[in-house]
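> example.struct
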């Protein structure tokens, strides 16, 4: 028997999107029963806590919402959904004020008391507000305090969502099947409105930055429920992930962009500064260009001992570097590197997924009662996310989702009974590994990470993607024959890992199919067999959907609802450049 729980609003995930949604939902209607169910511990999990650089917002004299919008559209290579991008940039100022004045955050200031804005790549204005290089900790700690203070918000930590369960009549969602990780019990949460805020997270690559609790579960659930996913080929690689060797989870973690911005040099294994071979902006070129340049050096075999390249800061003065980048200098020291005075090995690392669930600017999806916010949603960033637009995205749309879900429930008050057949089949699906002989799940995860890195990684081509797709089929078949010992289900981390790998394989297939479909190179997606960007006016985005158990992929036209390629919104009007 599965335990049943009822609530009004069910929020999956406790990052910036999930916590903001909860606070807004109860503020809008204090009578609502709001539940947060999250795979980790509130305040300790997800990537919002890991935000280093900061939050993009146009609050400074000389900046404007139009300028932030144009940077976002041009950075996204004209692929963003312009309604979503506009909502993001135009709501960010309100959200930053809310973070400071209501949530209790305090960001770094200029001597005159105004918010300090730092420079971030790809932006024409220094608009990234921050708290040193630990901005995410400030945001998530203050949000966590506010959420714990509101005892009316129910919290289910270490609860993993495994399936979206439709209503009996198929008209809407009924709820979500979850596993209580602590006890191993299955629990069905029936809700009037559900928010998907599990934070994407492309952790299927050999080198990656997102937190370990993220395995693309939300997008895997959405695919199985028949929902469309957009821009899945758009995986952002950050050029400078720490490369500390194969046996440490520190490998892949980000050394922030500010290092290159401040004048850091990249050197190959022969100590040659190589960026001049690739881009006139040298190390300050955009993330995608620098990542591809490093990858080319690696392919040419000009590597550091662990197979990457070096970043060097010492020429800027070790004491200055130690002061300016304290967090990063400490982290490198923990891994045996001297960032201030020596060389640190780095490698491109999968950082962010621009792709995700298709949604409207009010966070609604095509399924009534299902909403999405944060990194699970797509369309705001197009082919590239600007550094600083990630946490803005999760907090802006999380807040909107809380308001909208509250209003939606006022007009759709009924709770729908679940389709019991699907609930039963999803239960069988997630307990499947207990029906097979125990095997080595970690070996499969290692193979998946190598497969995606080698075949569908920084640089792609048709033959590699085809090998990637074939490899994913093999891995899935092996996973389904690999079991987990059925001793205790309580805190059975091998079982959780088995499900992580399954979600990652399913969503990797969506990434590979979308990469196969896009026969041009835009932003984060680079095809060596189709290196041109294609005509901007006829830009399309990819949509992957699962029907009758199979994934299909199609192209849809980008709508230029605010500005067309060649135009600019600066000075308040669309003017030909
Ligand atoms: C190292 C690093 C540095 C970054 N720096 C910046 C920066 O400087 N500026 C910027 O704008 N962006 C930055 N980003 C990106 C930014 O962190 C994210 O875009 C944003 O925080 C995502 O917020 P979210 O709420 O969508 O997801 P997250 O904050 O990642 O939260 C996801 C939540 O979902 C939960 N979850 C996952 N799976 C399940 C499941 N199956 N069931 C229930 N819950 C689940 C997780 O436990 C977690 O609570 C950075 C990211 C990283 C990794």
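> example.seq
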């Amino acid at each position: 028997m599965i335990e049943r729980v009822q609530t009004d609003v069910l929020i999956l995930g406790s990052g910036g999107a999930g916590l903001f949604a909860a606070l807004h939902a109860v503020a809008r209607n204090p009578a609502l029963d709001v539940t947060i169910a999250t795979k980790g511990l509130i305040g300790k999990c997800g990537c919002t806590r890991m935000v280093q650089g900061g939050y993009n917002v146009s609050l400074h004299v000389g900046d404007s919402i139009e300028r932030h919008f144009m940077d976002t559209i041009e950075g996204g290579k004209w692929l963003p959904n312009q309604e979503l991008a506009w909502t993001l940039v135009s709501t960010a100022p309100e959200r930053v004020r809310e973070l400071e004045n209501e949530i209790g955050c305090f960001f770094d200031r200029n001597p005159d008391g105004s918010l300090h804005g730092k420079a971030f790549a790809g932006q024409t204005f220094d608009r990234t507000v921050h708290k040193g290089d630990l901005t995410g900790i400030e945001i998530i700690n203050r949000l966590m305090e506010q959420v714990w203070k509101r005892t009316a918000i129910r919290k289910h930590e270490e609860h993993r969502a495994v399936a979206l369960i439709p209503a009996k009549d198929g008209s809407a969602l009924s709820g979500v099947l979850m596993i209580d990780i602590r006890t191993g019990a299955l629990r069905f949460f029936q809700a009037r409105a559900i928010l998907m805020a599990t934070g994407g997270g492309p952790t299927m690559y050999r080198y990656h930055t997102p937190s370990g609790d993220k395995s693309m579960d939300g997008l895997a659930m959405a695919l199985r429920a028949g929902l469309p996913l957009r821009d899945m080929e758009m995986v952002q690689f950050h050029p400078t992930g720490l490369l500390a060797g194969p046996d440490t989870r520190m490998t892949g973690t980000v050394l922030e962009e500010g290092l290159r911005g401040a004048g850091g040099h990249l050197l190959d294994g022969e100590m040659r500064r190589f960026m001049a071979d690739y881009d006139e902006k040298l190390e300050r070129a955009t993330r995608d260009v620098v990542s591809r340049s490093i990858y080319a050096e690696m392919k040419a075999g000009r590597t550091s001992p662990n197979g990457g390249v070096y970043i060097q800061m010492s020429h800027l003065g070790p004491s200055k570097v130690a002061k300016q980048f304290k967090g990063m200098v400490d982290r490198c020291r923990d891994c045996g590197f001297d960032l201030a005075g020596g060389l640190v090995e780095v490698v491109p690392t999968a950082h962010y997924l621009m792709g995700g669930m298709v949604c409207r600017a009010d966070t609604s999806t095509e399924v009534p009662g299902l909403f999405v916010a944060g990194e699970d949603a797509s369309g705001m960033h197009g082919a590239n996310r600007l550094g600083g637009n990630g946490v803005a995205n999760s907090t802006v749309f999380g807040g909107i989702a809380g308001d909208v879900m509250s209003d939606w429930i006022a007009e759709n008050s009924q709770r729908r009974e679940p389709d019991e057949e699907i609930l039963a089949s999803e239960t069988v699906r997630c307990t499947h590994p207990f029906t097979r002989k125990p095997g080595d799940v970690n070996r499969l995860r290692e193979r998946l990470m190598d497969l995606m890195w080698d075949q569908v990684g920084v640089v792609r081509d048709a033959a590699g993607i085809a090998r990637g797709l074939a490899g994913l089929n093999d891995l899935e078949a092996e996973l389904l024959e690999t079991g987990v010992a059925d001793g205790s289900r309580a805190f059975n981390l091998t079982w959780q890992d088995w499900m992580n790998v399954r979600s990652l394989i399913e969503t990797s297939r969506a990434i590979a199919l979308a990469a196969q479909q896009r026969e041009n190179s835009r932003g984060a997606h680079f095809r060596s067999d189709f290196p041109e960007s294609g005509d901007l006016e006829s830009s399309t985005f990819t949509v992957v959907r699962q029907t009758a158990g199979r994934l299909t992929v199609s192209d849809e036209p980008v709508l230029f609802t605010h500005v067309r390629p060649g135009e600019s919104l600066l000075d308040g009007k669309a003017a030909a450049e």
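> remarks
The longest helix spans residues 493-517.
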